[in-house]
Structures are given as C-alpha cells and as structure tokens.
C-alpha cells in the first residue's frame, strides 16, 4: 500500500507543487481541452503536477497510456495515448519508449507487460483492481472447461494474467461478439462478465455459457431508471457499455466499448446524451462537444479513481510499482491476447 505521507514529503523536496495561477496561465493551451469541466482554481492546483510529469516523462523515456475512464487532468494533461482496452493493448505493442506508465487498472498494466516483456511497465497504484478480474481464477476457468468439454474459453481482458493463460483467446467490449462468432464450436465459454456474455448471446448464433462475474459500476444501472429519465427527457440519447445488464442495453440507443461510445457521440452529436458508463467519460469529451449536453448518472469506478496526478508523478519519480508477470504464465497469456489482436485485425475491427 502506498505511504501517502512519505510520498508527499518526498515529492515536495524535489518539485515545486504549490498551486500556481502563473503556471496555469502559461499552460492555457492544455487547460482549453478541459475548461468546461475543470475550474480555474482546480487547474492552478493541477498545472504544477502536469508540468512536472510531462518533464519527467521525457527524462525517463516513458510513455503514458491512459484508459478513457481517467479524470480529465490525466486524460488531457499527461496522457500520450488514450483509448479503450483493445486500443491500449494494441498501442502497447507499438510504443518505442523503454517505460510504459499505465494509467488504468492493474489488468491493463499486466496486459501491457505481457505484450512487452522487455519493457518496464509501471502502475501508479497497485490497488487499482477490477471487480471482474477479481471474480475468477484459473481454477474457475478449468471448472468451466470440465462442465462444457471441448468448448473454447473466451476471456474478457478484464482478467488476471493467470486467467488469460488458462483461456484460448481474449476479447474486449469492442470485439466480443465477433470473437465469439469466429469460434469453431457451437458452444462458447465466456468469462468472467455474465452481462457482457448475455449481451453477446443475444446477438450471436452461438450457445454462450458464462461465469457469473459482474462490474460493480455498470451493474448499478437499471432499465427502470433509464425509462423514467427518458420519459422526462424524450430527446436524450442513451448510450451504454456492454457490461450493463441486457435490460439496460435494450433501453439504449447505442451500446459499445468506451471508445465506441466516444466515436458515436462525435458522429451523432445528439443535443442531449446520457453515457451509461463511468463518470469521467462524459467529462473527458465535454470540451470537444460543446453543443452536446451530458446528463451524468455518474457511477464512479473506485479502482480507476485510485490513479491521480500525484501518484503518476510518484510512479515516474520512484520508478514504481513495476508490474511483474511470471514468464511461463506471461507466455501463455500472450498467446491469448495476441490471438485476439490477430483475429480482430483479420475481421477489420
Ligand atoms: P473498454 O474496453 O470498453 O474500455 O472497457 C473497459 C472497462 O473496464 C469498462 O468498465
Ligand atoms: Fe472493472 Fe467495472 Fe472498474 Fe471497468 S468499471 S475497471 S469493469 S470495476
């Protein structure tokens, strides 16, 4: 666990991190990407961190890969690349820098390490977990195989390296349906997200059997709430992530991965949009879409929110915490992730 008092006193010895309206003004070009959602006072607090991180990043030959759920000051201020899980995994195979700082949750950092065993992969807080990744172990995968002999195992990337290693192929929310449909068998095992699996099953000709994990953020949304909201705001476009229940997905005007959601809103520019996913998504695109009014049901992912500017600076300063994956496990897990990337490219995704 991070010792925050020690982290703060060490950082203050090396960097001037006092709120600075002057630095905030100098860095106004960055602020303009988020000024609809970040106040000037907050920007004066963030600016010294953003400046220090961007300088240190170059000195350490590091790149910051950030998930779409990061807060705006991370997403717009320090990230070199932002995206959904599939895009981040692909990007991890392309970076030239020696160090990857993964701003997201642990399974994402592990995926980057699996794909880049020679690089140093850092995560700013090892406690950035995921309820889905925590819901299944490699033994769980073997249980499913014993129950459905011969059926291939398609595991969501929201899993540990051990679970990926025990699976035949991975998938993300951006390619789950197509990956399942591409399996030769009529029955396909999906782990660990029961709702993603049911949403895929509703659109697939395959028999999909699944592990009963769930995302603690997306399972909170209910179809009833969405219907009630739509009744009062008939113009709203409801856009959901496939980790939501099938009832919620049925209410949505569009369902897709986090980047699919961003692209859809950019393309359709609805007057009012409700993003039925993690809170920061709407904040991150609010400035790019000034004519779209975002209603935020705002469920926060407590794991994603463990990542902050302060911890990113610490991670680069201290070169910690380094993500380590057992070599034999990583090799098997790499097969499952690379097979997903290969198949995704073949399917034109
Ligand atoms: P995406 O792959 O759609 O970015 O989703 C990852 C995730 O954890 C959503 O909760
Ligand atoms: Fe995991 Fe849900 Fe958080 Fe995504 S939003 S990282 S699936 S707990």
Report what the structure shows.
With 349 residues, this protein is an alpha/beta fold. It has three domains: 4-130 and 303-318, Rossmann fold, CATH 3.40.50.10800; 133-215 and 328-346, NadA-like (Rossmann fold), CATH 3.40.50.10800; 218-295, Rossmann fold, CATH 3.40.50.10800. 45% of the residues lie in helices and 13% in strands. A four-stranded parallel sheet has the order 2-1-3-4, with helices on both faces. Strands 6-5-7-8 form a four-stranded parallel sheet, with helices on both faces. Helix 6 (85-92) packs parallel to helix 7. The chain starts with a helix and ends with a helix. 1,3-dihydroxyacetonephosphate binds at residues 68, 84-85, 158, 172-173, 215, 241, 243, 257-258.
Mean model confidence by pLDDT: 97
Helical segment tally? 17
Helix content: 40-55%
What is the CATH class name of the largest domain? Alpha Beta
- Could you state the oligomeric state of the chains shown? single chain
What's the CATH topology label of the largest domain?
Rossmann fold
Order of helices and strands: HHHHEHEHEHEHEHEHEHEHEHEHEHEHH
Question: Would you identify the CATH H-level superfamily of the largest domain?
Answer: NadA-like
Question: Strand share of the residues?
Answer: 5-15%
In brief, what are we looking at here?
The protein is an alpha/beta fold and 349 residues long. It has helices spanning 4-14, 21-26, 28-31, 40-59, 72-75, 85-92, 106-115, 138-147, 161-165, 176-182, 194-201, 223-232, 246-251, 258-268, 280-286, 309-318, 327-346, and strands at 62-67, 81-83, 99-103, 120-122, 153-156, 169-171, 187-191, 207-210, 237-240, 254-255, 272-276, 293-295.
């Amino acid at each position: 666990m991070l010792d925050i008092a020690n982290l703060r006193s060490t950082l203050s010895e090396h960097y001037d991190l006092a709120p600075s309206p002057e630095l905030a003004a100098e860095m106004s070009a960055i602020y303009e990407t988020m000024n609809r959602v970040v106040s000037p006072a907050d920007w004066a607090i963030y600016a010294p961190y953003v400046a220090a991180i961007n300088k240190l990043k170059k000195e350490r030959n590091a790149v910051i890969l950030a998930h779409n759920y990061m807060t705006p000051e991370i997403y717009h201020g320090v990230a070199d690349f932002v995206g959904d899980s599939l895009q981040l995994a692909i990007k991890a195979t392309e970076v030239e820098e020696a160090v990857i700082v993964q701003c997201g949750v642990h399974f994402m950092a592990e995926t980057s390490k699996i794909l880049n065993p020679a690089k140093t992969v850092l995560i700013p807080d090892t406690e950035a977990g995921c309820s889905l990744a925590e819901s299944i172990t490699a033994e769980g995968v073997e249980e499913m195989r014993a129950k459905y002999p011969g059926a291939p195992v398609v595991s969501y990337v929201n899993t540990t390296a051990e679970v990926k290693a025990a699976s035949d192929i991975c998938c993300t929310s951006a390619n789950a349906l197509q990956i399942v449909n591409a399996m030769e068998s009529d029955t396909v095992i999906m782990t660990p997200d029961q709702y993603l699996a049911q949403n895929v099953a509703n659109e697939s000709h395959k028999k999909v059997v699944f592990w009963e994990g769930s995302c603690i953020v997306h399972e909170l949304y209910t179809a009833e709430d969405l219907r009630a909201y739509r009744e009062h705001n008939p113009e709203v476009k409801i856009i959901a992530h496939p980790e939501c229940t099938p009832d919620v997905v049925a209410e949505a005007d569009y369902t897709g991965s986090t980047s699919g959601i961003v692209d859809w809103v950019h393309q359709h520019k609805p007057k009012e949009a409700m993003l039925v996913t993690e809170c920061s998504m709407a904040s991150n695109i609010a400035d790019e879409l000034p004519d779209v009014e975002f209603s935020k049901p705002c469920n926060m992912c407590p794991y994603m929110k463990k990542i902050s500017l302060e911890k990113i600076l610490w991670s680069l300063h201290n070169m910690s915490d380094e993500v380590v994956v057992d070599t034999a496990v990583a090799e098997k897990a790499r097969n499952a992730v690379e097979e997903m990337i290969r198949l995704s490219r073949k399917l034109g995704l």
